[in-house]
Amino acid sequence: DADVTQTPRNRITKTGKRIMLECSQTKGHDRMYWYRQDPGLGLRLIYYSFDVKDINKGEISDGYSVSRQAQAKFSLSLESAIPNQTALYFCATSDSTGGANRGNTIYFGEGSWLTVV
Amino acid sequence: AQKITQTQPGMFVQEKEAVTLDCTYDTSDQSYGLFWYKQPSSGEMIFLIYQGSYDEQNATEGRYSLNFQKARKSANLVISASQLGDSAMYFCAMRRPMGGYNKLIFGAGTRLAVHP
Questions:
Q1: What does the angle CA A25 – CA B101 – CA B34 come to, to the nearest 5 degrees?
Q2: Of A103, A104, A108, the CB nearest to B44
Q3: Do A11 and A114 form a contact (C-beta atoms < 8 A)?
Q4: pLDDT tens-digit profile of B3-26?
Q5: How far is residue B7 from each of residues A38, B10, B23, B76, measured CA to CA in Å?
Q6: CB < 8 Å to B95, chain A
Q7: Which residue among B42, B45, B103 sits closest to A108, beta carbon to beta carbon?
Q8: Closest Cβ opposite residue B47 in set A43, A56, A105
Q9: How far apart are CA A95 and CA B11, in angstroms?
Q10: Would you list which residues of chain B are within 8 Å, Cβ to Cβ, of chain A?
Q11: Buried b (16+ CB within 10 A) or exposed e, B68-78
């Protein structure tokens, strides 16, 4: 089983609809992230959270919101989806305390393919 | 500007041979980290190997090794004994500290095809 689990893995939704992508992790990491990947643009950070009470905007937060329900759960919402939000979305985690020998490596989930039509 | 450059859009290698994927980086930070990730066609992003800027020895993880040349600002990934399952997109990334957050900067990626 994956350590970082994203649901749904694939979703097609209509313009204007609200959609939530959920992420849960069993790695025990304190930090969680949401990225999106677009062809030719690489990965861009949407939001990140250092702990349940600490949520921060990333490079491209407009049109998105997040909720850190617990240390292990971090969800991303598109309140009113638009076609240019069609992308591959990744949840990720890192450990601020015990990961120094791995450079506080960021571990990614399996990705959620979102298509907005 | 902080930047990662992967100059090889595509590479191919014969099964069981070794292949080197190039990565150069640009940073003025003294402390940084370099990572390689693998992305198969199914989409997941898999962590492969890490090299810290102060590490004196090249990192190795199984068939993966990182050829770190700090003066040249290069961090090439070497895959030994290539397997068909190694066919994927490979991304080099750099971590730099930004306040309390470690920002990851990704390169554009190299698509590797392993031929039987």
A1: 85
A2: A108
A3: yes
A4: 899 999 999 999 999 999 999 999
A5: 19, 9, 7, 11
A6: 103-104, 106
A7: B45
A8: A105
A9: 33
A10: 33, 35, 37, 42-47, 50-52, 91, 95, 100-104, 106-109
A11: beeeeebbbbb
- The phi, psi pair for B86, rounded to 5°, reads -80, -10
Per residue in A20-31, pLDDT tens? 999 999 999 999
Chain B residues closer than 8 Å to A109 by CB:
44
Residue B26 token pair: 């640009």
Cβ-defined contact of B44 to A111 (cutoff 8 Å): yes
DSSP-assigned letter for residue A77: E
pLDDT at A57: 92
Rounded distance between C-alpha atoms, residue B91 and residue B110, angstroms: 7
CB A43 within 8 A of CB B4: no
Q: Return all residues near A45 (Cβ < 8 A) that are at least 6 apart.
A: A33, A34, A35, A58, A59, A60, B103, B104
- Tell me what pLDDT residue B98 has: 62
